[in-house]
Amino acid sequence: MKPKFSHLDERGQARMVDVSGKPVQYRRALATGALRCAPATLRLLKKNALPKGDVLAVARVAGIQAAKRTAELIPLCHPLPLQQVSVDFVVKADRVLIEATALTVGQTGVEMEALTAVSVAALTLYDMMKAVDKGMVIDGVTLKLKEKR
Amino acid sequence: MKPKFSHLDERGQARMVDVSGKPVQYRRALATGALRCAPATLRLLKKNALPKGDVLAVARVAGIQAAKRTAELIPLCHPLPLQQVSVDFVVKADRVLIEATALTVGQTGVEMEALTAVSVAALTLYDMMKAVDKGMVIDGVTLKLKEKR
Amino acid sequence: MKPKFSHLDERGQARMVDVSGKPVQYRRALATGALRCAPATLRLLKKNALPKGDVLAVARVAGIQAAKRTAELIPLCHPLPLQQVSVDFVVKADRVLIEATALTVGQTGVEMEALTAVSVAALTLYDMMKAVDKGMVIDGVTLKLKEKR
Amino acid sequence: MKPKFSHLDERGQARMVDVSGKPVQYRRALATGALRCAPATLRLLKKNALPKGDVLAVARVAGIQAAKRTAELIPLCHPLPLQQVSVDFVVKADRVLIEATALTVGQTGVEMEALTAVSVAALTLYDMMKAVDKGMVIDGVTLKLKEKR
Amino acid sequence: MKPKFSHLDERGQARMVDVSGKPVQYRRALATGALRCAPATLRLLKKNALPKGDVLAVARVAGIQAAKRTAELIPLCHPLPLQQVSVDFVVKADRVLIEATALTVGQTGVEMEALTAVSVAALTLYDMMKAVDKGMVIDGVTLKLKEKR
Amino acid sequence: MKPKFSHLDERGQARMVDVSGKPVQYRRALATGALRCAPATLRLLKKNALPKGDVLAVARVAGIQAAKRTAELIPLCHPLPLQQVSVDFVVKADRVLIEATALTVGQTGVEMEALTAVSVAALTLYDMMKAVDKGMVIDGVTLKLKEKR
Predict the structure, then answer these.
(1) Residue of A5, A19, A147 to mutate, testing the B interface (most B Cβ within 10 Å of its Cβ)
(2) Within-domain flag for E67
(3) What ipTM was reported for this prediction?
């Protein structure tokens, strides 16, 4: 059997895959990514973030809300119930590491929800810090873990 | 004057910046990024993409639509008219390069719109190709150009 | 000059057309359509609609709200301010006529907004009446007038 | 028993019907419609569509995405999981035929999802071809099949 | 055990609570609230509302639609199927009483859906009556009943 | 001239008012409201809020984002550019006071945007504190100031 793109039918046309025959299972995904910044930006973030938390809290909320809208953003994604979403940050010397988990009890995996949460959290950090840093880069957005049981 | 995050007020609280005093100007932004994939995935993409175009067309539409929803996704972004958005792809041996431009005649820049278009186009490609490639990474999402006149 | 689709670039790829060079003008569009129904359905609608108006009011609200979301629904439409939207109905013997107007002071026309309002108002009527009529058809959705000045 | 509109309560007021007592079943709907165009427009569509597919691919994506947002557009529709959505086109001499299917395993049917997909796909085609054809009409949007098991 | 906010993790960070271990149950909530107005406004509302019903019908639709979007508006709410939503009004001498019920068969309660329906119905009434009454106040928005079985 | 509801036409039907003839002006609105809670809840909020700020930051973001979606939530509101939105909290002994400002340079006022921000911020606080306090009430949501120049 040849490898093929599941979202294309036999004529090469886009479609939402039929998942009605798949079992309802506990499915969890963990995605990560990073926003690379100048060290001075991150020192400023740490100074602002520790007393009040607003910068990271805003980015966390944005990531969680984006996960819930994944099926609106990614055209061929299925709308899914989400039993849990979380977004975490680690501020390193030259980057903010971002980690998101999503969890469903459903018929398809939630890797796109976790990846979307990471991407939108990174974009939100970028937006809030762009006045002081013109050279930021979002890097390494990828899936770390996908499990079902 | 000390550098500061424009989206935090003097108490460190998040806010939408007041842009009512800024001039209405032609503003354009260009962002880029890449989805790194296995070469076999990209050979498959090229084979599927060339006759029908659905894979790249779906990702292009997703990026354009996401640009229009930037203010919903990024909490402190201003809602903006958008006079033009475009998303382009170049399929290389080991990655798909993604480039997006956004254009407004308004009071704030559109870098977040261009970056959001790149990110969501990348996520959409990831979604359509994930059945054949488990190791893809979104990399190098950054602003290349921002102009106003 | 050959006729061409404005939403395709020279490579045949979809794009949002650049309207930044177009003048800001008063632009209005009027679209119409009809939901064809069994006469018994329309007698029931008239009986229900006259005292309370909820059926037509719900469809009117749905059409107005859809007009405001046209740029989210139609991928290559520009987001626009809308200065006015209205949706009207005439209940005939075998159909409900639907008429919608949209008005902007902007750089592109609002025919898609008016057509979207008609279509979603028709779908909403269909939804509310489908329990009693299995053979309804949405017909004749078209633009009647487009003006700018 | 007299026929009545299920979305009106005994006082004639709109409501979302209570479906909590209905069985979770496999439910599928198929809707069709057409965009009537000038023959010259369709010759242009075929010429553009065959090499790149962007016009039809954009309309297909728009229809699929609209199906997922049916409960936002149609006020009294229930939010539903959707296990599959597809949109297909046949380009005839004087019209584009549009066919959409929607599938859920849930407590209510998906005819509105299929009809919404057809309508928004038709509107999207209209938008992309309106620069070359001022007389297009959306016609015959109706339900062809509804099944549950 | 000390009382704690369920939406904060052990580090005080916001999260969507994991509800995957909770049973799927029939859950219903009833919320109420009021829009306090000048008596003259309410006499005008009654005069307008009784023949046509549009004012209350528009507010009812707005409340029902908002209930369906609760998870988009309230960042840490779970997306939920909703089997039923209703919004009712009683026009008193100095206020409009608003009552909303929401019903799910799911893993979390629907009190936020009912409260959101009341709040948005009140805001919609406010919007439609603000031209004649500058002193309206939304008051007493609270949960009256929450049940599961 | 008799007072009348501006959102009803001469037949009592809902409509979006035509604002195309109104001048583009600087318009600002300030709305307030309160979430009444048990004193123990507020002591817990203060303890949690001060070190990390996540509870209030989440509610602030939710209010700002809701202001941007006012025209989607309130059916007859006009979509508007928003040049600034802010949401503030004061934690009192028995309530959280909420204050929101919205600002546009446009053709209609932004009181609904400010009131929507207050309401959704209050609902978000309610959601996060409902596990420890079953008797909270949203009260006194009203417009404090509306100016144009």
Answers:
(1) A5
(2) yes
(3) 0.94
